[in-house]
Structures are given as structure tokens and as C-alpha cells.
Amino acid sequence: MAPTLFDHGAKPGDLIEIFRGTYEHWAVYIGGNEVVHLIPPSDDSSPFGSLLMLLDSSRAQVRRQKIWEVVGGHRFEINNLLDHKYEPRDRHVIVREACRMVSEEQPYNAVTHNCEHFVTEIRLTEQLRSEAQLQQASAS
Question: What does pTM read for this prediction?
Fold first, then answer.
């Protein structure tokens, strides 16, 4: 059964995966039924228009919105996708970092820096940075 307004079960710092038909959108839950997410600008809210926007954008903005404004009528779930591999940051640190970024404009690329990368980096920054440094050191 899909989560509802009253029982989504998300805790601050959890990653939310939203299934929008043609693509998945990601956000980080910050509490109070709010999320922070990375979204390119759009004038077209149709599924096809949203997909084109994602593929054609090079910049995106970090936004803070009510979870239900972002989810709309789509199915979503909590998906802390790399927690089995990395220890996440403390929840209050995740929330603080996400809120600090609100209104920032960031580079966007549908393949290399999208909304999934954005929320994953907020949740796991230290571990991802450490692994990247280890990989660079072993390649040298």
C-alpha cells in the first residue's frame, strides 16, 4: 500500500524516491512534512515536458517544499539506497545541510549530477569523499 499524507513513515534525513512514470525524482525529508530537492526550472508540468526539462537543463535550484507538493499524485517510498554500504551522517546534520542549500543554484546533468546524486551526497558526503580519495590514492 502506498504511503498517505498521515503515514508516510519518513524520518528527518531519509531519502524519498518519487515514481513519476517516465523517471524517478528524489528528495530528502527534513521533517514537518517538508522535503528539500534539486529541480531544474520548468514551465511545462506534463510528464513529457518534465522529462524534456530534465534532459535539457544545465542548472537547477534547491527547493524546500511540502512533501505533497513534490509528490503530487505519484507513488513514492523511503529509499536510503546506499545505507547498506555506507554509514549515513547523523539525521540532524543531513537536515541542516539540506536546509543550508535551499535557494542555491547548482549545475545539473541528467547523468552525472541529478536529484538522486544531490540527495545521496547530502546523506553520505563524508563516506563518498573518503572512498573517492582512496580510489585516487590507489590509482596514483
Answer: 0.80
Is 99 annotated in the active site?
A: no
Per annotation, catalytic residue among 8, 37, 74, 92: 37
Name the E strands within 51-95.
Answer: 59-66, 75-78
Per-residue pLDDT tens digits of the chain, which is 140 residues long = 455 545 789 999 999 999 988 889 999 999 999 999 999 876 334 454 455 555 567 889 999 999 999 999 999 999 998 888 888 999 999 999 999 999 999 999 888 889 999 999 999 976 555 554 445 555 65
